[in-house]
Structures are given as C-alpha cells and as structure tokens.
Amino acid sequence: MRVENRKALLVGIDTYASGINNLHACVADVQRMGELLEHHERGDPNFSCKLLTSSNSTVTKERFEQAVDLLFQGNPDMVLYYFSGHGSTHENKGYMICQDTQKEDISTGFPMDQLLLKANESQVPEIVIILDCCHAGALGNFSLEGSPITQLREGITVLAATLSSEYAVERMGHGVFTKLLCQGLEGVSADILGHVTAASLYNLADSMLSPWEQRPVYKSFVNKMKPLRYCLPKIPKKALRRINQHFPQPDASIQLSESFLEHTRQATPSDVGLFKELLDYESVGLVQGRMAKTLTSEAEIQGTCILTEYGKLFWQTVAKGLV
Fold it and tell me: CB atoms < 10 A from the CB of 275, how many?
C-alpha cells in the first residue's frame, strides 16, 4: 500500500514585542499537536511536521510567509496548517499576529486571507487549516448583500477556535480549543474504525464548549474526508467484519438464552464466545436486546439480539467490502 505524503506546518507564538501581551500555552500546544500528528496511534508515520515557534526562532511576518510557501510546495497528498497565537481584526479582515507585528498597525501581521489564497491556489488535493486564536472565524469571510460568505475551493477544511468576533481562551497550560483537539486526536473523536477526521474533531469541540464559551467554527468543501489520524479501533476489524456472519441479513436476530452467559450451568463455549462479541458490538451501538435494556438482561429472559439502525447501516458497509 502506498504511503501518503503528508506535510504539516505548526506555528506557535508565546512572546511578543511592541506592547502586545505575551501568551503562555501556544508553544506547548504546537509541541503536543506535533507529537500527535507525526504518527498514528500504533506508530505508523503520519504527517511530516515542521514546528515554527517563538521558542526556537523569531517568527517574523517574512519567516511566516516563507514557511507557508514551503508548506504548499512539492506534491503532497495532504497538507495541514496549525496556528496558535494572537489573532486580531482590522477593517473586517483577520490577521495572525507575528512577533514583529506593530500594535499600532495590526495590518502588519500575516493576513488570514493571504493564507487562504495560497491554499486556494495550491495544487494540494486536501488541505486542513486549524486556527486557535482570537477572531479565528474571520478566515475567508466576506459579505455579500449583508450576508457572510466564505470562499473555499474544493478540498479545503477550516477549523477555527472562535467566531470572527470572539476571543480565544487559554486554560491550564493549553488553549481550550487545542486541548479538545488533542483529546480528539488521542482517540476521543475516533469512529468505530479508529478514524479521526476534521469533522469529528469539530463535533467534539462543539459539544464540549457551552453556548456561553467561545464557539468553534467549521468550514469545509470536500467530497471525501480523509482521516487526520488513525487510532486503534475499539473492536478489532476482523471481529467487526463478522457481523455479517452473525446476522446473515440486516433484519436477522439471534435467539439468546442462559447458554450465552458464562456464569450459568447451561453455558456452552460457542455461545459464550459469540456473546462476548455481541457485547463488544453493544458497547459501540451496533446491537441491542429486543426487550431488555442490556444484552445480559435479554439473555436472562431468553430474548433476542437485533441490529440497531446504526448496526444495519454498518452491516451494509461491511457487505460492500468497505471495512
């Protein structure tokens, strides 16, 4: 199997000049994101990461732009750009604040629109942009007859920590948004096969941040979303593929009895082995008892095990050879 060529540029700025307040979590955020993106959970190589931080260089606007240009060069299959630092707006345009940005003239920062323009003009088939800064949602925004519009070419996804009018928050050594993203990449956002996508990361952040906190923004124009990281699936794929053996049809059912319960006198090795697999399926929402709340209770009353609606959809996925 061909290994994809993936590149990631992660920029973090804690220290600023010109009277701009210093931050405390941005470099740490970049380092943790880099650790997670460099490899999939089982150690296979993932993104080739370049870290540009205020702890290892002076992140000027010129150096910032050079690093972005290098990110989009070559023929990578996928590119990821991550920024943690100050963000601001000037005349309705968003800027990422560099170390040489002048407080009196925010437009001396790196324009978010310039980053998006470079992404739109590149030939990279899939690009993910993640901004953890104040006003991050301003990236790509413009107004058409009073309504906000975002211009993304096909293949681009944006994850922003805040609405264009909001401020991002640091807490306990990390940006609140990045902390959630890291938890998602560690496996919290993984689907049943262990895939973590930009959409699942956003879903985690959206569900964990209350309406009273900063609100994340998701923008995407893709026809197929590649995982950003592969985590170990909750159930081995071989076991998942056996769902079609256990249930020959989506509407099939399995008659349960005490022979499925390991602690009973009627227990048989074959039924107990099958039941353990059914319990795994139950843990990820693929099966359920017809009457009782749990499969164990269902077996005690000699009920039946059936596929949930999600289980039926997954059954079809397996039947198509996609697992």
Answer: 22
For residue 195, list its beta bridge partners. Answer: 230
Nearest to 217 by CA among 124, 129, 108, 296: 129
Angstrom distances, CA of residue 313 to CA of 250, 286, 287, 319: 8, 9, 12, 10
CB half-sphere exposure, 65, CA atoms < 13 A:
11
What's the rounded Cα separation, in Å, for the pair 17 and 166?
A: 23
How does pLDDT run across 183-211, given as a tens digit for each residue?
A: 999 999 999 999 999 999 999 999 999 88
pLDDT band at 1 (very low <50, low <70, confident <90, very high): low
Residue 147 has pLDDT above 70, yes or no: no
Residues with Cβ within 8 Å of residue 270, at least 6 apart in sequence: none
Whole-Å CA distances, 37 to 19, 45, 205, 244: 33, 9, 18, 34
**Cα–Cα distance for residue pair 50/47, rounded to 1 Å:** 9
- Give the predicted TM-score (pTM) of the model: 0.89
What 3-state class would DSSP assign to 123?
Answer: coil
Q: Per residue in 7-29, pLDDT tens?
A: 999 999 999 987 899 999 999 99
